[in-house]
Amino acid sequence: MDVKNVSRPRRAPRRNGEGVAAFPIGPLSRGEGFLNRELYLRIREAIVGGEMPAGYRLPSTRVLSAQLGVARNTVLDAYEQLNSEGYLESRHGSGHYVAAFVPEAFERLTAKRRRPEATRKGSAAQIANRFAFVPESFRRAIPAVPFRANLPALDVVELQAWIRLYTRILRQAGRSARNPGHFGETDAIGDALLRRAIAEYVSLARGVRCSPEQVVITAGAQHAMDLLLRVIGRPGEQAWIEDPCFPGALAALRGAGLQPVPVPVDDDGIDVDRARRLAGEARVALVCPSKQFPLGHVMALHRRLALIEWARERKAWVIEDDYDSEYRFSGKTIPSLQGLDGGEFVIYVGTFSKVLFPGLRLGFIVAPPMLVDPIVAVRTLAGRHGNPLDQQVLARFILDGHLGRHVRRMRKLYQVRMEALLHSAGRWLGGAVTVEPAEAGLQTVGWLAPGFDDQAVSERAAEAGVEVGHLSRYCIDTARPPGLVFGFGAFDEGEIDAAARVLAGVLEREAGRAAAGGARSKPSRRRPVRQA
User: Fold this and answer.
1) Are strands 238-243 and 443-448 parallel, antiparallel or unpaired?
2) Which of the listed CATH numbers 1.25.40.10, 3.40.50.280, 2.160.20.60, 1.10.10.10 matches domain 14-104?
3) Is the whole model's pTM more than 0.70, yes or no?
4) CATH code, 155-402
5) Where do the domains of the chain lie?
6) CA-to-CA distance for 152 and 2, rounded, in angstroms?
7) Cys-Cys link to 218, which of 252, 363, 420, 451 (CB 3.0-4.6 A)?
């Protein structure tokens, strides 16, 4: 036999007394710190460095403690820590072994798959840009500073009645804690008693034609619009929207992937004939017929009929945002568009955020029967259900007559505050701003004299502690003369007068800049015809 051609067998790892491979760790330093921590780190380094490969069997705690001259609990603590972190695995009756896949191996694997930092930053920027249309002011709470719009009076809300009802329902809940209507889940469509109360309320107050089965409870009007557009909208389709408009409505359309088509608004409301010419194929329209935001116009009857006729021809949907409709100061309350249509193609959206207080976050949809199930399905995906306790309190608040009394009281208060705004504007703002009397709601428009830039005035006012919106913020395509949006509902006569005085100083300084050529100046455009 030719021994030269016979390959030598691989040398097996040197074994210790127990038949395991020799342990590649020398004596511990016994310096400052705990021995179990030092042993844990030394073994982990040996595993990560490859000195102890996968499947390597470690000495028993008894053998290693004797070998290192330490207590057995020291070794036991180190092994347990390594086990918990995934470096070792214990086999019953056999001992401790190095795990097949240690944490550092996982990190090395995922690092190979990880995108370069620049690519990841680019992707994140693209994602952020997709939602840049959501106004910054919607993402944070804004203090109640004069003249913030869309804010009700929080200093005179019917809190005592609300607290009494809440306390009573909490006590009932305590006696029947297993009742899902109290502390557990409730139906996604909303509390049955609240839906009945809302159906009765909007029927009497707004002329809405519906049954409780058509009412879906939401977390406010913005939530309602988002749900609706996800149900009735198709990404890429055109949708009519008033110009100017509430930024939240525009954001809801874009968020649903629809293409907003701005339609100019005049004294009679949205121009339906022009809307047909601009986007005849549209299948969705979002309007505020009872009080257009921010101009405050009421949609005339002939425009309402034209809008309903278009919806029937196109089998389209009209979303009626009926905000602030309860607070009309003069004339009869104007019935809803939904009541005129009969609820066939018009979907009614309401909220209690302005009627009571924004923190309540309760609104509702009155939908045609065929849309109720899909809306509830999307509502389920978006958040299952609302707060059952708040819904029960609101139901009792309505049915016990508190809401009706509150609305009548607040209507008088808001009229007083609106008149205070007119008085203070006349006193301090002179010929720089012409504030229009509001026929309803919590805010009105003031038209700036030619030469002012409404955005510049708004920004300077904010620096001075006064929040007054600029009309150009709400305009999409339609050119409008410079104007300011004054919210008056949340502020008493003293606050209104003080803020008007501050704004007068801002306007005086802006006029000086314009005269010196240092201000951003927009040319005056033709002022739209306004209601008397």
Assistant:
1) unpaired
2) 1.10.10.10
3) yes
4) 3.40.640.10
5) 14-104, 155-402, 406-516
6) 103
7) 363
> What is the C-alpha to C-alpha distance for residues 447 and 434, in angstroms, rounded to an integer?
5
Q: Which fold has domain 406-516?
A: Aspartate Aminotransferase, domain 1 (3.90.1150)
Note down pLDDT in tens along the chain; length 532 residues. Answer: 444 443 333 333 444 444 445 678 877 877 656 888 889 989 998 888 888 998 999 999 999 988 888 889 999 999 999 998 889 998 888 899 999 887 766 566 555 555 566 666 667 777 777 777 787 777 787 788 999 999 999 888 778 899 999 999 888 876 665 555 556 678 999 999 999 999 999 999 999 999 999 999 999 999 999 999 999 999 999 999 999 999 999 999 999 999 999 999 999 999 999 999 999 999 999 999 999 999 999 999 999 999 999 999 999 999 999 988 889 987 777 889 999 998 899 999 999 988 998 888 999 999 999 999 999 999 999 887 788 899 999 999 999 999 999 999 999 999 999 999 999 999 999 889 999 999 999 999 999 999 999 999 999 999 999 999 999 999 998 889 999 999 999 999 999 999 999 999 999 999 888 777 654 444 333 333 333 2
Q: What angle do CA 196, 193, 248 make, to 5 degrees?
A: 70
Rounded CA separation 209/214 (Å) = 10
Q: What are phi and psi of 484, to 5 degrees?
A: -125, 150
